[in-house]
Amino acid sequence: MRLRRGSAGLLLGAVLAGCAVPGCAAAPPAPPPSPLADVRGTPPADPVEVCTNGVVHWAEVDLAGGQDYGDYQQRALSARQDRLRAQIVRDGRAAGGFTGEQVRTRARAGCEVLLAADPGPSGY
After folding, report:
1. Domain assignment of residue 22, yes or no
2. 56 is in which domain, residue-wise?
3. Is the entire prediction scored with pTM above 0.70?
4. How many folded domains does the chain comprise?
């Protein structure tokens, strides 16, 4: 089938004109949401809870006879938190062991005292 010269021009013009319609040309995709989008609306973590969780974790590892993970910095604890952890471990061993709840109760009480004395994120 042969198109006459004028018909081919009309066909090409119709195709090109059709892309002038809004929405024909694809708009660039929207960027993906930032990974921080979910975090921005999240309230900051409670410092006492953060301290408690770290001390509890490492005190329980030590009381269970777990691997020695090195100094407090390798455990992501401050020196104050590490002293608290060591005291809980000493007390637990002297008592013949602590339950998880006993470790948590002692860690939380100790972290409350530490943060009341110095709420800063001091490593010492």
Report:
1. no
2. 45-117
3. no
4. 1
